[in-house]
Specification:
By secondary structure, this protein is α/β, with parallel strands linked by helices. The protein contains 12 helices and 15 strands. It starts with a strand and ends with a strand. The structure holds threonylcarbamoyladenylate and magnesium ion. The site of magnesium ion (MG) has 3 residues, from loops.
Length: about 350
Amino acid sequence: MKLMNFQDIARARDLLAAGDVVAIPTETVYGLAASIESEAALRKVFALKGRPFFDPLIVHAHSIKQAQSLVREWPPVADFLARFFWPGPLTLILPRAAHVNPLITAGLDTVAIRIPRHDFTLKLIEQLGAPIAAPSANRFGRTSPSRAEHVTSEFPNENLLVLDGGPCEIGLESTVISFALVSNQSDAAAAAATDVTNVDHIQILRPGGISEAELVEALTKWSRPTVVTRLSGSERSPGTLQMHYQPKIPLVILASQTDPQAEETRASLEKSMQRKISNPVQLDLNDDPILAARELYHDMRRLSESGADILVVQHSAEKQNGSWEAIWDRLTRAATLDLSR
Ligand code: TXA
Ligand code: MG
């Protein structure tokens, strides 16, 4: 069931307050929300998604003060970035306050927090009087929803209320970052060894709506020198699994010099996939990365429901930097086969 207007926020609030789950719009993707104060609702989120308990959730706050109530430490550089980018697609990983339910954090000592940029959801959190935990509103491992109708098609048999806030402005998930805090022993040792005690160290755990370049640019206005690094592979967030965001039909990334229409491409795909391919369809990425991100999940869904039996996307040497990084991160994880490397 979809809720279409601002008045419906009160209904959504009542459901959350009663320990139920509601789908919410954000500027990145739709989320499946539970009040952080309801263990029953938190469990329902994991159950609906089919999500394993080792994958922690992001907590959404409506003010910096509310975000601060979730943590034990609020480092100055985190404060700077929060004030610079919030409300917006940046998630901060910080030491969690004792009252934060370990279900949310998968038992970790840290909690992920952001203030989303969507009026409906900000109003909802404010009216509820408690932050909400929300993963993307898709079944585990599947393509995230960037429109209300994606959520309803993801959960066709559930009586789930979806607060319809229109198509998402960004279209893919927030950038997740952590801080090397001096309270962390190995960081302290590393800092001592390299004499960087006066440097703030930020790690990108998941590329997303804020690009690395935007982070670095913002940090030029910060009072201390800052190092931004990207974690890869197993160092990344517990939830950034290799197989993720998968559409209903296999997605294959083709090398840039391959002609997607050529008969020989199909023949070599059949060989690699070890099956017959009768109806391939091509995913075209807009030349503007802002638009490409906004349309990505919608196109992946639309094309995988178009009767095609394989989805191909062509690697592009030009579309790699800045905002493209998050797009290729998602495509690479969504792909069954990557013939571009
Ligand atoms: O844009 C978004 O971030 C969307 C909207 C709904 O806010 N949410 C979202 O949630 O993408 P989800 O659950 O699909 O992804 C959360 C990511 C996962 O990669 C998870 O591992 C990571 O955040 N994460 C959460 N808590 C963490 C923690 N304490 N330490 C490291 N990573 C964490
Ligand atoms: Mg997700």
